[in-house]
Amino acid sequence: MVLTARPHDLEPSPRRSKDASWELFDDQATIFEQRAGLPAHYCRDIANSVIEIGQVRAGDLIVEIGPGTGQIAQWLQQTSAYIGFDLSSGMLKESQRRLGHNAGSRSLIQADANRSWPLASGSARVIFSSRALHLLDHEHVAEEVFRIASEDGAALILGRVKRDRDSVRARMAREMIERLHQHGFEGRRGEKETQKLIESCCRRGAEDLGVADIARWRVSTSPRQSVESWRCLTGLAGIKVPAQSRNDILNEMEAWAEQELGGLDREIESEETYVLRSLRIPAVQERINSPNSDLM
């Protein structure tokens, strides 16, 4: 079932993001996997790696922020207690369809991760998110991670797709961010925002365990595929953009791709890698003794 967070869990964070809106994902929930889904046969490997890195034991809780359509959640919830929460009701419906209707030891909750998380303090062994936390206020996320982390330690695990810098998708994404800036909008740059979160957690005493490559595959993509996938959205780069501005930007992107990438329909092969960045959240006693304990 899909649960709605209790009203007192939805008080605004003092650092609430003004730009990102997960409601943007409602409009693309049913087509999300077509435009941005992971290769299905790697999702179990990703889930197993999360469980291994987090040293999950029987009865431990895995919390996933932004489970999307449940591609990874379907494997996480089979071996552990699981809670996933997302602002997008459309995404949660897709997750529920994949996870099935037996609640068991899993729950899907509609909640805004930029507000107080609907979870008890000290409850989570693993806090996991795939391609979502860069949309959130990094200081608020760090506070909530440390609040819900198990008293004897936990892991924050961040998943993302790493692309060749010269691939079609990477070049199109960089140009789109630049076009947004030219039109007066500030898109959210995933790697930059994620690094802010990591630094915020480390100031609170977390240990950065580095990056692990989990799966690698080759894709053949064209500029048109990127533009058409963006035309399905009501925003760009995680922020709301008025329809006229969005159309202008995407028309400019088409003209740029024709000139710089050899045509809208030119397909170029490249490699993509799914990586996990992991941080160890120390036990409560370690946090108390940390030089940065005043940040708790």
Describe the structure.
The protein has 296 residues and is α/β, with parallel strands linked by helices. It has a single domain, classed as Vaccinia Virus protein VP39 (Rossmann fold), CATH 3.40.50.150. 35% of the residues lie in helices and 23% in strands. It contains ten helices and ten strands. The chain has helices at residues 32-36, 43-53, 73-76, 89-99, 138-148, 168-182, 190-203, 223-231, 243-260, 284-289, and strands at residues 2-4, 61-65, 81-86, 106-110, 126-130, 154-163, 207-221, 235-236, 239-240, 268-281. Strands 1-4-3-2-5-6-10-7 form an eight-stranded mixed β-sheet. Strand 8 and strand 9 (239-240) form a beta hairpin. Helix 5 (138-148) crosses helix 7, helix 6 (168-182) crosses helix 9 and helix 8 (223-231) packs antiparallel against helix 9. The chain starts with a strand and ends in a 7-residue tail after the last helix. The relative contact order is 0.16. Residues 1-20 have low confidence and may be disordered.
